[in-house]
Amino acid sequence: TMDYYMRLTSFYSQFRAVGVNYNQVVKILYQKFSEKKASAYLYKLEKQTAEFAVLSKKIIQLTEEFEEKHLKKKS
To answer: How far is CA 2 from CA 5, 8, 18, 22, 70, in A?
Structure first.
């Protein structure tokens, strides 16, 4: 249980870093490229973000299942 939560905490830190980088990338896109080209890159980024959101929901689901199986039995 402790190992799982340590890894989950580490993953959460990485997830937050992605969010910070995402904001920086969007800002740079509009600074360095024409609006048309920046929008095209942003579209690709949005598609990847949607996939990331699906993955995040799966992680939440797996965490809930883990808690149900391993933590609620001990209570």
So the answer is: 5, 10, 24, 30, 11
How far apart CA 69 and CA 30 sit, in angstroms, is: 47
Predicted pLDDT of residue 73: 60
What span, in angstroms and rounded, lies between the C-alpha atoms of 40 and 3? 41
- Orientation angle between helical segments 2-32 and 35-66, nearest 10 degrees: 170
| Cβ contacts of 42 within 8 Å, gap of 6 or more | 26, 29
DSSP-based three-state secondary structure for 74: coil
Interatomic CA distance for residues 27 and 61, integer angstroms: 32
> Could you read off the pLDDT of 17-44 as tens digits, one per residue?
888 888 899 999 999 999 999 999 999 9
